[in-house]
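Query structure, 179 tokens:
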């Protein structure tokens, strides 16, 4: 068998506040020939692709800057999975990130569909970074009962925790229904 037969395709949306590491995370996942030597802040959004564990991911990398966050809901209804990236060392903006998460759960594109959500507690290598359990507590993740979710501590620069998280998401993506 050749080509893309048998390969799973997935559309995911990656959200989080500006400077949380979303684009750096995607850059780590792309093939070496396609990686950027320098990552700049995303304006609006970018569509990126990467392959992981026999799944071809199309990823909508959404800007986390305040003026662009209103674009996020436009892509919720198409997403088969969500990656929410949190800068675990930016304690001052944890409340802002939690507020964005709450607004995401109120949007019908997410609320009415049990898409899996992967949380990356990014920048775990920085001093005073919150742990996965501290972020889960701050975000009250244990209250999420209508969908699968997972939190993974990560360092998008080195890739630590990234593959593990993406593999979890890939395993939780909806299965194609047989006709």
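Result returned for the query:
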């Amino acid at each position: 068998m050749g080509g893309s037969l048998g390969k799973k395709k997935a559309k995911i949306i990656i959200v989080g506040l500006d400077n949380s590491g979303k684009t750096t995370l995607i850059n780590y996942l792309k093939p070496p020939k396609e990686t950027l030597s320098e990552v700049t802040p995303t304006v609006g959004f970018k569509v990126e692709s990467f392959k992981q564990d026999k799944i071809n991911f199309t990823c909508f990398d959404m800007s986390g800057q305040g003026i662009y966050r209103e674009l996020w809901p436009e892509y919720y209804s198409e997403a088969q999975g969500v990656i929410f990236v949190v800068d675990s060392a930016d304690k001052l903006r944890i409340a802002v990130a939690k507020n964005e998460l709450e607004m995401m759960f109120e949007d019908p594109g997410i609320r009415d569909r049990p898409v899996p959500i992967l949380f990356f507690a990014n920048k775990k290598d920085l001093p005073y970074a919150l742990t996965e359990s501290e972020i889960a507590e701050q975000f009250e993740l244990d209250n999420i009962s209508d969908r699968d979710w997972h939190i993974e501590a990560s360092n998008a620069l080195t890739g630590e925790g990234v593959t593990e998280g993406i593999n979890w998401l890939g395993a939780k993506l909806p299965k194609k229904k047989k006709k």
